[in-house]
Amino acid sequence: MRLKWVLLFVIMLLLAGCQPSYWVLEKDRLDEVTDIKMYVNDLQMHDDVKGYQIFTISEGKKMVGVSLGSSENDKQLEVSDVKFSSKETVVTVKRKATLKANEKNPYILIGLDKIKGDFIVQDELGNRFEEIDYQQ
Question: What pLDDT does 105 receive?
Answer without folding.
Answer: 92
